[in-house]
Structure formats: C-alpha cells, structure tokens
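Observation: inputs received (chain + S-adenosylmethionine).
Thought: call the complex predictor directly.
Action: predict_structure
Action Input:
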Amino acid sequence: MDPEAFSGLCSVKRGVQTMGKDRETENTPERLLARAYALRNDNPEETLKLYADWAETYDHTMIDGLAYRSPRRIAALAAASESRRDARVLDVGCGTGLLADCLRGEGFSRIDGLDYSAPMLAVAKREGRIEEAFLRDLNAPLAMEAECYDMLASTGTFTHGHVGAECLPGLLALLVPGGRLICTVHHDVWDEGGFGAGLQALTDAGAAVLRSREADLLFEDDDEPTGWYLVVEKRPA
Ligand SMILES: C[S@@+](CC[C@H](N)C(=O)[O-])C[C@H]1O[C@@H](n2cnc3c(N)ncnc32)[C@H](O)[C@@H]1O
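Observation:
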C-alpha cells in the first residue's frame, strides 16, 4: 500500500476524516475503514454490505495498511491457555480467518469459523484457514450444537456497531465446561456494548470466571491501549 493511503488509514482510525468528496463512493481502504467505524448495531444490512465490498481486500488493508496485531496476540494467549493443539476451536466473527491463521501458526489444527458475512467466510474457507464454516448472526439464536468447543477465540468482532454482550450466554453454551472464550473487546464498546455488565452478570451467576483482562494495543501503531484482551472460563452448570 502506498504511504499516502497508509497515512489516510491511520487518520480514519483516529477519527479524522481526510477523504475528498469525489472518493466517498469508492471502495478505497480509507472509505471501507471509515464505514466500519461508522457502523451501528441497528443496521445489519449496512454491515453485510460493508463486508461484501471488503472481503477480497480486507487482509491487505488490515495487515499491510494498519499493522493489525490482535489476531497474533489472541493466538498467543490461546496457546498459553490451552496445551492441547487438537482442541476444538471456533473463531467467532472469523471474517477472512486472520485469527484462525494465527491459531494454526500456534499449532491448533481443528478450527471452525462463524460469521454472518458469506463473502468473508468464503475467503476464510478458500484460504484453508477454517474447516467448517457457520453462517450465523451473533445477534440471533445460534442454533448450533451445545458444549462442542474447547475454545472460542475472537478478534475485531466485539467492536463498534457489530455485536453486543447479549450474545455471550449463547456463546458460552457452545463451550464445554472449563472451556475458554479468549477475545478482544474494543475499549469504546466495553460499557456501550454492555460487556462489563454482561460479564459481571455471568460471573455473579457462577456461569463464568474472568481469568484475565489486559488492556493493550489492537493495532501496532495505536498510541495507547485500544482494547481489552480477555480470557473467560465457562464454569460447570
Ligand atoms: C472487523 S471484522 C473481524 C474479522 C476477523 N475476526 C479479524 O480479526 O480479522 C468483524 C467481523 O464480524 C462479523 N460480524 C459483524 N456482525 C456480526 C454478527 N452479528 N454476527 C456474526 N458476525 C458478525 C463481520 O461479518 C466481520 O467478518
């Protein structure tokens, strides 16, 4: 990516709109990222349209343009947390499978992916990053087999205008007792998306234990921590 486009991306991420009117309708990396940051939970059509437009260039934008770091960081947390490399893992909101790819790099071999964008899932599948692909909406009942995953891993899904904490009980239901949800939550949605309160309710009810919560960068060039890195363990019923 050329240096000008790169600085444009960073500006968008910092909330500075640098685009000229003539470029507003193009699928430039800056425009796609600005659309991602402008998403609202009540407009799923807009989310689906964004990821359909972005699927084929998403990896390039995130890796080369933005030095996206959370997939590597979450994969390392997963590797430290789970010794069995044949553990069954579900990448939640897997997109093109960047996290699944990093989990494979850590030696995990049984990784499925869940997302509600068919074009993003198609890239993840085509690139061989996930085995089974589940086309599901996290804001609706998941209709999946209970207690069949040892680990749920997720990056970039609990963020602006995507998914709120209401999905957490449904996700925990997919885990075996003692299984872990290892994920990022963007700082901006910790309160707004109900993650703080939602996790507190689950721990108060004895359904889960928060094993760790660390503030850290989501992108290499963030000036300060932008997200929470969580390890949540499901307790037996
Ligand atoms: C920023 S991308 C992150 C993709 C990938 N996890 C990564 O880190 O590169 C967010 C993903 O969440 C998915 N997503 C957004 N809302 C969703 C929902 N309600 N249900 C399932 N997936 C959703 C999008 O389709 C998109 O693939």
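Thought: report the result.
Final Answer: The chain has two domains: 3-65, 70-234. Residues 3-65 form one domain.
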